[in-house]
Design brief:
160 residues; Ubiquitin-like (UB roll); 5-stranded mixed β-sheet
Length: 160
Amino acid sequence: MREEKIRLIINGDTYEVIVKPREPLLHVLRNKLGLMGTKRGCDVGDCGACTVLIDGKATLSCLVLAIEASGKGITTIEGLAEGENLHPLQRAFMEHGAIQCGYCTPGMIMTVKAFLEENPDPTEEGIKEAISGNLCRCTGYVKIIEAIKAAAQIIQHERK
């Protein structure tokens, strides 16, 4: 297979990377760029662990070819914090105990980040539907939903 040089814009930084035509974005993020926050779970789009934002839309990076993401704006969990200041979602997950093993957390947070952009005042049912593609084996989702509600309020307050 012929390799190709592509340009990825990740968390505001531009990277030129040589990829194989069928190489998933997930593998490039982790194995070539060292962005380990995006987790590898099922590799078939069922668990949500690998969720990143591509042009603001929650996307499963295991199902997107790196070539398809070339030139698009990609945000990973590493790109949410501003220096030492965590994003409200990251803070809320910590403060509400929504993290146990933490494996699902980056994908969950990225999914919810995109969701809250379109639904700043979500209902509990809306939250449940939004995270339905993100599997968590530890928490039972109660603390996750509490954290999302709290973060939504903080984000709303910050926008005013």
